[in-house]
Amino acid sequence: MSPKDSRGITTSNSALYKFHRPKLRVRDTPHPLKCESELCLRNLSTHRTKRPAPPYPRTHGAAVLVALFVGRAGDLYVLLSQRAKTLSSYAGDTALPGGRIDDDDETIEDTARREAFEEIGLPQDKHKLPLLCILDPFLAGNEVLVTPVVVLILDNTLTPVLNAPEVDTLFSHPLASFLSTTFPERAEPRGPFLEAEAHAETAALELQYHTHSDVPWPQPWSTSADSAARAVRMHRFLTGREAGGMKPIYGLTAAILIRTAAIAYGRPPEFPVQARGEPEINERVAWSLRHPGKRLEEAMRRERFDAERAARVWDKWEGGKWRTGKFRQRVPSRL
């Protein structure tokens, strides 16, 4: 649990962001890496958040696992799933495995690994799936603060065990394609779980691979005078399986994968990431704490959470900002 002051009010998230980084070796990957992919893993393994995220209600915190693996040609892929169509929220969406923080989760990494195990049967072994990095959090539309945890799968013989009530399908997608406006030209042969199939469907559909829409900010319940003056950009990528009923990769999942790919490949995407005047994550979180929706307000009341005190910390937080300059990290490599 997060530290509390004498009144029992949460004051920090620092305990959630403690994690173990085993030493990685390039020769441990099941397939030889391309030079570009090796550099990607170095960039990710040396990435550090500027500082842990400021306080936020624990019951409104979540994590997702960005599970990468090396294909036979040496390229990097990410595992994605299609949520079950019977779920009450985000039914049928294309997503990363993840979910809310449990009481027993000591760190945000524990949350991501546990959820991936429960949803798709991904082992929680930290040596077979070593941690690469933790990214700065993202704020979901339901005001849940989501932290991405990036790992590397070193065992390409893993077999999926899908939790049918939660997951319908598992597939993979090239990581580099989240920096591109055009669909990846080809897919790899099968790898761990179900590696990306051929993308002939997309060519037949003649649809644009990457598109975006700008959603007004703040949230709809706002009475702010400038609510229509700013927006948050939502990106959309086709999977190549739309003809079969698969939804595109959209919104929060797309944003997380854009950030992961940009750090890995050390370059910004081919398209503008943010809308003009888009608020940074710290501004959006501080605003939500001061103008919470019903569920966030109830969570803060249950946890005796000091919203204004936390919002002031978020006001000054400089993590999570999108930077268009070089992504080179100055941390010694562990590879």
Automatic annotation (TrEMBL):
Keywords: Hydrolase. The keyword Hydrolase applies. One of its GO terms (molecular function) is coenzyme A diphosphatase activity. This is NUDIX hydrolase domain-like protein. The keyword Hydrolase applies. GO terms for biological process: coenzyme A catabolic process. CDD domains: NUDIX_CoAse_Nudt7 (cd03426). Residues 59-198 form the Nudix hydrolase domain.
